[in-house]
Amino acid sequence: MKFVNLRNSFLVVSFVSLSAFAQKPTPTPKIKQVPKTLAKTVQKTPDISAADSAKAAEFVKQGKAFWKEFEIRPAIDSFTKAIEINPNHLEALTERGVIYFLINEDKNAASDLDRVLKIEPNNLKALHFRGLALTDIAIDTKDELNDRNTAGDIAQKALADFNKAIDLEPNNLNYYNGRGKLILAFGFYKEAVSDFEKSISIEPNEMAYTQLGLAKYYLDDKSAIGEINKAIKLAPTFAEAYYTRATINRDEGRYKEAILDFDEAIKHNQYNAKYYNTRGMLYFRLQDGYQAVADFTRAIKEKNDYAMPYFNRAMTYKRLPYSVSDNDDDDAIDKIRLQRQKMLEDLDSAIRYKTNFDAAYVERGLINSTDMRNKLTPDAETISRLKFALADFENAIKYNPKNAEAYNGRASCHDRLGKKDAALADYTKAIQLDPTLATAYMGRMAIYCEMGKKELSIADEKKVKELGFAAFNACSF
Question: Can you tell me the distance from the alpha carbon of 109 to that of 99, in angstroms, rounded to the nearest whole number?
Fold first, then answer.
């Protein structure tokens, strides 16, 4: 069992990637303090015979023994058997919920800990770990599903858990670290700094120093890296500190330092898919296609339902086509076919694991709408592919109505299918969303020319040239 897949320790909570905060998030509804006293919900414990109670206790004992040896699934199975005997077995539910959190099954964790807190509202362990699980769910909902309203509601519940835990035990640094991570993710940087500084005042710890550095970085505080350096000095094998420093170095253009830090993070936690994916993105930026593909492939190996490395690998094949194959005997046509095949496979996987992945729909649509078989007059097979592409662009628009590339792609499909008015409307929408999208001006320029709207066509041609691109416009002759 790869027990290093677990979140590093009970003090260590997973960070979100710096890329999630490249731009300061739009403020969510204000996260308010919860009352110090919450109404207790008492759930009647079912009648359990002495024999069944002893049997459940034995399963719990067995589960703890498995867990001590990091035998994850056997431990979960043992706690599950205890819960089947006694559905309100607090210890079994708590232990199983904590394990679910540590193996990144946040929804299962929250479900188990919900049941504990309905019976025992002041259970500190359940409050802490449900808060952590809900935090991760809220961040994923905001960043992966692009649903800030739902994310805000979940974040409120997580905040209530941390606030209550702090009220009950105000000198536990774990609760400040958990709350700090939550409010940091939602853009409350100064408040996050206060929580991490409070944690450090209780006891200096690598988690708080690392997250404090991240919060200060978003506040343009020059001491950000210094805080992370304190974390590394305190705990030289703490992978997340190296990872966080790497992302800051990357964003500041210190690529060599970033690579070294990513390497250290992976050295100390070699099963973290996020680390490989992020380092792969840096190799892609440095145009090292082979290294980028290797990192994205390793990220997928560690977490095969992780959508981003599939998408990133597809983009590497697209932008750095030599990375498709290191076989020098392949001719150009073979490499193009292999590139198309590999890109489609990866984009299919990205969409499978993230159904609202608008950028993946756009890229898959582009492959089918610009296939080599395309002709001036589309044949039956090309028309079929254009319809597949059209469906992908429509899905992209459905999940992100502000995706200019999706409108541009759909316009191109409409144009080739002879639907000029629909194409014109989509090109115009794409331009409204992104006034620098030269290909949209080119497409609209051609349609205006076909429609005899010479002045409008020449105006778009002029815009294309202003953007630094060449344009051939029959209406200019």
Answer: 8
111 and 30 together in one domain: yes
Residues 124 and 62 in one domain: yes
How far apart (Å, rounded) are the C-alpha atoms in residues 167 and 226? 31
Query: Residue 315's domain spans which residues?
Result: 272-355
Answer whether residue 406 is part of any domain: no
Whether residues 257 and 276 fall in one domain: no
Concatenate the DSSP letters of all residues of 17-51 into one string.
PGGGGSSPPPPPSP-PPPPSS------PPPP--HH
- Please indicate, yes or no, whether residues 340 and 281 belong to a single structural domain of this protein: yes
Q: Which of 256, 254, 274, 264 is nearest to 231 (CA)?
A: 264
Helix (H) or strand (E) holding 8: none
Last residue of a domain, one of 270, 290, 310: 270
CA distance 335 to 158: 50
pLDDT in tens, 44-92: 456 789 999 999 999 999 999 999 999 999 999 999 999 999 999 999 9
With both helix axes pointing from N to C terminus, report the angle between 124-143 and 90-102 in degrees, rounded to the nearest 10. 40
What the block records as the tokens of 300 is 């997928």
Q: Which of 66-75, 187-196, 317-326, 367-376 shows the lowest mean pLDDT across its residues?
A: 367-376
Shared domain for 11 and 130, answered yes or no, is yes
Residues 14, 7, 11, 258, CA torsion sign: negative
Tokens of 219: 């506040």
One domain, residues 60 and 199: no
Q: How many domains does the chain have?
A: 3
Q: Are residues 106 and 122 in the same domain?
A: yes
- The runs of H, that is alpha helices, within 376-418 are 380-399, 404-416
Per-residue pLDDT tens over the stretch 138-160: 999 998 877 889 999 999 999 99
249 and 328 share one domain: no
Picking from 393, 362, 398, the residue whose alpha carbon sits closest to that of residue 146 is 398
277-to-66, 237, 271 alpha-carbon distances in Å: 32, 20, 11
The mean of the pLDDT values for the chain is: 89
Please report which helix (H) or strand (E) contains residue 401, including its range: none
Predicted local distance difference test score (pLDDT) of residue 36: 36
State how far the Cα of 437 lies from the Cα of 427, in Å rounded to an integer: 10
- Specify the range with the lowest mean pLDDT, choosing from 88-97, 274-283, 370-379: 370-379
Boundary of a domain, candidates 270, 302, 325: 270
* 339, 342, 343, 346: CA torsion to nearest 10: -170
